[in-house]
């Protein structure tokens, strides 16, 4: 496995891999857990070579967010990825990704405007910009993203379609179902911010979401089910709820009532120092 920090050696490594088979890219911010490793295993099943990027992208963090506190553990991450048979870890420095004079921004309207886009202004511009750069740097045949970040996946697919990307093509951007801890909490690098008590309380998030989904699917008015969900989170130790919405699964428009199209329940809520997000399917 090669650990690469600069663009020239990356290009040479990518050229050599490409001559030998297809490339799958798994973009990450590091502090890897089993969710990330599941993406890597799926990537191995899709292509001869897997490239994992590890880059804590300053552009996607707001001024008062956790950029400095975000866990960084490159050595441990590389050991995990080597054991998975990854070919290249692409870990650029911030100055390599954004050299002096960098002035371009990719902004995807519509799908990036509500939910996390409203709660974290500029976040999805930062995501779209860095992912477009990663695509151009690695030129993967396929790229894999977690459904854990459902809105992010929708934003990246929209960008790839709108910009007529070919490596990867929008259809080769694959979503992988959320990997969860035994108690149902979605795995996240940010779970490391939780104390033992907060971690135990955080299970209220998937539990309350499943309860709300059962209510909505059973015919309870959407507004009532979502209010009960928020109350359950606050009673269960969460400090605040950024949003809890039933949305169209594809375009993420907020649904005031059930629809006959695929739906998704998306929630962001704060507990301790962590802001946790989760989403689940809702049957029509
Ligand atoms: P991150 O390092 O948090 O930016 O995540 C890198 C990739 O891993 C993104 O595509 C995430 O959606 C995905 N991911 C993060 N957590 C999980 C999880 N629990 N299950 C599946 N994929 C995940």
UniProtKB/TrEMBL annotation:
<dbReference type="GO" id="GO:0015940">
    <property type="term" value="P:pantothenate biosynthetic process"/>
</dbReference>
<dbReference type="InterPro" id="IPR004821">
    <property type="entry name" value="Cyt_trans-like"/>
</dbReference>
<dbReference type="GO" id="GO:0004592">
    <property type="term" value="F:pantoate-beta-alanine ligase activity"/>
</dbReference>
<comment type="function">
    <text>Catalyzes the condensation of pantoate with beta-alanine in an ATP-dependent reaction via a pantoyl-adenylate intermediate.</text>
</comment>
<feature type="binding site">
    <location>
        <position position="179"/>
    </location>
    <ligand>
        <name>ATP</name>
    </ligand>
</feature>
<dbReference type="GO" id="GO:0005829">
    <property type="term" value="C:cytosol"/>
</dbReference>
<dbReference type="Pfam" id="PF02569">
    <property type="entry name" value="Pantoate_ligase"/>
</dbReference>
<protein>
    <recommendedName>
        <fullName>Pantothenate synthetase</fullName>
        <ecNumber>6.3.2.1</ecNumber>
    </recommendedName>
</protein>
<comment type="subunit">
    <text>Homodimer.</text>
</comment>
<keyword id="KW-0566">Pantothenate biosynthesis</keyword>
<keyword id="KW-0547">Nucleotide-binding</keyword>
<keyword id="KW-0436">Ligase</keyword>
<feature type="binding site">
    <location>
        <position position="152"/>
    </location>
    <ligand>
        <name>(R)-pantoate</name>
    </ligand>
</feature>
<keyword id="KW-0963">Cytoplasm</keyword>
<dbReference type="InterPro" id="IPR003721">
    <property type="entry name" value="Pantoate_ligase"/>
</dbReference>
<feature type="binding site">
    <location>
        <begin position="187"/>
        <end position="190"/>
    </location>
    <ligand>
        <name>ATP</name>
    </ligand>
</feature>
<feature type="binding site">
    <location>
        <position position="60"/>
    </location>
    <ligand>
        <name>beta-alanine</name>
    </ligand>
</feature>
<feature type="binding site">
    <location>
        <position position="60"/>
    </location>
    <ligand>
        <name>(R)-pantoate</name>
    </ligand>
</feature>
<feature type="binding site">
    <location>
        <begin position="29"/>
        <end position="36"/>
    </location>
    <ligand>
        <name>ATP</name>
    </ligand>
</feature>
<comment type="similarity">
    <text>Belongs to the pantothenate synthetase family.</text>
</comment>
<dbReference type="InterPro" id="IPR042176">
    <property type="entry name" value="Pantoate_ligase_C"/>
</dbReference>
<keyword id="KW-0067">ATP-binding</keyword>
<dbReference type="InterPro" id="IPR014729">
    <property type="entry name" value="Rossmann-like_a/b/a_fold"/>
</dbReference>
<dbReference type="GO" id="GO:0005524">
    <property type="term" value="F:ATP binding"/>
</dbReference>
<feature type="active site" description="Proton donor">
    <location>
        <position position="36"/>
    </location>
</feature>
<feature type="binding site">
    <location>
        <begin position="146"/>
        <end position="149"/>
    </location>
    <ligand>
        <name>ATP</name>
    </ligand>
</feature>
<comment type="pathway">
    <text>Cofactor biosynthesis; (R)-pantothenate biosynthesis; (R)-pantothenate from (R)-pantoate and beta-alanine: step 1/1.</text>
</comment>
